[in-house]
């Protein structure tokens, strides 16, 4: 719930302004864009991490991919991504374009440990993995994602994001 509130506040702060509340609710989000291929950054990034190119996206493939992103962003190789290094992480994949360090920083120490990043539930799996098997097939992608996450969100496996209100 706090993630949802933090996300709403963050998204609103970036949007511009409304009378009495600077940066709040001056534009309505286009929720339909999340289902148009090429416009949804989470869906758009999937082919990049389908390691065996079989069109089935697995939690293991996702975790391997975000581990590589984390390692590349950790410029000083100290095992953490700090605020300065976080920009490289945002540029690594369209799904992270609007990500916020605070979302991943569970212990609020101003940096992200690998586990804090890699073990986050994935918004991709929350949206498309309808049967909860940590695999998303082409059929699940065609039939899922229209209204956001499934009625039964999959919060296991996958790493990164996970429920309505994720900040990216």
CATH class identity of the domain at 30-143: Mainly Alpha
- The mean pLDDT is 72
Tell me the Rg in angstroms: 16 Å
* Fraction in beta strands: 5-15%
- CATH architecture title of the domain at 30-143: Orthogonal Bundle
Strand order of the largest sheet: 1-4
Q: So what's the overall shape?
A: elongated
Q: What letter string, H or E per element, gives the SSE order? A: HHEHEHHEHHEH
Number of strands: 4
Q: What can be said about the biggest beta sheet?
A: 2 strands, antiparallel
Query: Which fold name fills CATH's third level, the topology of the domain at 30-143?
Result: Recoverin, domain 1
End-to-end separation in angstroms reads 16 Å
Helical/strand content category: mainly alpha
Which homologous superfamily in CATH is the superfamily of the domain at 30-143? EF-hand
Low-confidence stretches: 1-35, 145-168
Distinct helical segment count: 8
As a percent range, the share of helical residues equals 25-40%
Biased composition (Gly residues): 143-168
Protein name: EF-hand domain-containing protein
Pfam family, one: EF-hand_5
Organism: Rhodoplanes elegans
């Amino acid at each position: 719930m706090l993630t949802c509130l933090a996300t709403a506040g963050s998204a609103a702060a970036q949007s511009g302004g409304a009378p009495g509340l600077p940066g709040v609710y001056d534009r309505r989000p286009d929720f339909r864009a999340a289902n148009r291929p090429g416009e949804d950054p989470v869906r758009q990034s999937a082919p990049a991490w389908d390691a065996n190119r079989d069109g089935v996206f697995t939690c293991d493939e996702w975790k391997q991919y975000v581990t590589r992103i984390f390692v590349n962003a950790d410029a000083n190789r100290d095992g953490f991504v700090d605020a300065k290094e976080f920009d490289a992480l945002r540029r690594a994949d369209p799904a992270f374009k609007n990500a916020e360090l605070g979302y991943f920083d569970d212990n609020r120490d101003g940096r992200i440990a690998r586990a804090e990043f890699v073990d986050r539930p994935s918004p991709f799996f929350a949206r498309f993995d309808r049967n909860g098997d940590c695999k998303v097939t082409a059929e699940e992608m065609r039939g899922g994602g229209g209204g956001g996450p499934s009625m039964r969100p999959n919060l296991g496996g996958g790493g990164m994001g996970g429920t309505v209100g994720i900040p990216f």
